[in-house]
Input
Amino acid sequence: MIHGIRSDDVLSVEFFLFVYFIAINSYYFFTGSIALLRLPWYVKLHLADPVRRSTSTLDQPVTFVVPAFNEESMIVSSLRSMLALEYVNFEIIVVNDGSTDGTLVALDGAFELEPYEGIYRPGLRTQDVKEIYQSSSHPQLRVIDKVNGGKGDALNAALNLARFPLIFSADADSYYHPATLQWMTEPFQQDPLTVAVGGTIAVASAEQHLPKSLIKRFQVLEYLRAFLATRMGFAPLNALGIVSGACGLWRKDILIECGGFRTDTIWEDMEMTMRVHNYCISTQRPYRIAFTPYPVCWTDVAPTLRALYNQRKGWHRHLCECVTIHRRMLFGRGGFFSWVAMPYFVFFEWLAPLVVSCGVVFSIAGAALGFLDVRSQVWLLALVLMLAMFGSIVSILLDEISFAAYGLSEVWLLLVAALLENFGYRQFVMVANLAGFAAWLFHRPIGGNTKYPGLFVKAWRPDSDTR
Amino acid sequence: MLFTNGFSLFELIIKLSVALSLLMTVLLLAALILVRSRNAIYRRRQIMLDKRWREVFTAASAGTALPDPLPTIRKQDWFTVLAIYIQFQDVGASDDVAIRLGIADYALSLLDRGDDADKIIALKVLGHIRDARAFESAVVLTRQEGPELSRTAAHCALRIDPSFIAGTLRLLLVRDDWVRSRVEMMLREVDPGALGVAMASAIADAPEETQPRLLDYVRFCPANSAHSICDGVLNTSLNPEALAAALRSLAPLARDRDHEMAVRFTNHEDSIVALSALRVLRKCVRSEDRALLVKMTSHPDYWVRLRAAEAAVQLFATIELAEEFSAGLADRYARDAMEQVLAEKAMVARRR
Output
């Protein structure tokens, strides 16, 4: 024992770390169990009563909003997938948010833009709108060309121009299933209290199925865990903490009542979701935020470690912003959201990088300095590994019993990835999260275009925004 | 001593936890392998079933020779066969095969013992075959909480006995959780004349606050019935939602004689009613409405201004005359609305 270090203090720290890991994994077990119960029911129900091509004018009209910043390479193909949606009444508003590449030129070339002479009502304040265009080949497509103001600002500009009562927030680098809107609008009709519906995003791959890159495979696992195991578990409790910016359908009136998307946070999706919870709970308005587990959106994931680092740093910073902005929701009057989802976000997402990194340092230092038994640390490590594997296998199992997106060999490759990610990848993500935490704490810019002091306005580039 | 004991105990807890999590992980892995293997077999079987039964039902629909004897259906394949069968609903003539296979009997048994998905598929089959034995069960199931199940049950009952339309409309008054495009599909199968009669009666009996739920479906009634239903509501109701819904339904059918009523409702204090009235007015606008349209294009509500501008543009034979009207408007917001409508009209004209 090292002089000055009390053994019961050491034991307390060890015990705290142990309980923390058990608690985190109990959450995953809890949400995973709900998902395991719900998903087979959901899939069978939709086999019996599948969604159909929309031909009815009674279907609620939807405005697709697509913020775009330097999306020259992907925006045209992405928009073509949106224009191919099998829905009778929808419009698309692309917001070119001060792109410095040829995004607008690409749009003009593909969709024959001409000036839109209609009225733009700036109900929500945004950066200046330079011009509005309408496609002469696709009349339901309009393009707002505006001064760069970040993703929230671009979404607000689109809200100002949107005509329809439902707003689908989409990403310019994602692809959508032709029946996306049928899947996503049904919860609004089945429950009039529904204010938002989150959709499931899957990883797009040029190889059609599982990407060859190991980094991308790790992200496939993360997406499976996030969407099938976690969100599917929170949704039945009306405790969904995030409706993804790439695949979320909102009631326009609730977005307006909440004051539109914030422009002073890095991203907007989690903040808006929490704000809607906060708003509805504060105003005692009954509401529901639903989730559709059927994968309707495919997106490219970070291809390099650098892109991944920036992405996760930004994501964690956004989480920091959200939990502090909405801190009063923690153990507040918000039912399951306040007592189940918020504690998860605060203790097991927001603080996790701090606790985990402290735990790692403590274990290594303790073993090196001799006040911790190396053998017990190895056992602890084995426990962490086992629980991590457990969570990943639950997600793969959930996919297998529901949509079975991957073939047999791919399932084995995913299992290998589930093992390998514990040796370097998870630690890398933790470091990125810590960096995001520090950037939030010290109001430091994350990188890219810092139009707003300390903000990462370019955070949603195709290689970095896949949420 | 405490140190040693404390750590020993802690290490023991960790070891137990590792053992437990290892066991759970191994079990889960085994479950995954099992599910994966079952899925692989299931998928191969699905492909085979799909091919086999599509051939049978296609032959039945086309009236060509059927395989004799018909393939047997294993217990675990019933759901798939029923799902394939209902895809042939629109073709129609596969009912004979359904009877020979005992599809109706099996579907009936599912109504008693299946889960929601089983019941839904059974109801679809029974509704298609119009098996009267299923009617009572279907009516009972319309009272279920699940929107998919209750809606499918109503559809089944309606197919078996078209006179259940009155019951269906009563259900529509309370079920605001049925997907409306699917309700439309259901109502389109009903004889329009019968729908018109039932709709008139249901709306007359319904409380004002629930009338709008039915009024949106009036468009599927014959034009005369739809007109008289909407007129009835417009002459009696004081509920703005009901008035707006009636005007909305009337808009596609509006005739010249609706002009007076449309003008009357543009002055309604609730902008949602004025908005819908302008949709009607757009179809029967007259030159004498010019002053009214000048007033309405300056309305505080954006959508009312826009609809008024649309009606105003209908008034003029050429875009130039409409632009002249727009230029003469004193209110900036009124001119904005006119510009918007004119711009869209010009774009449509260019596209042509």
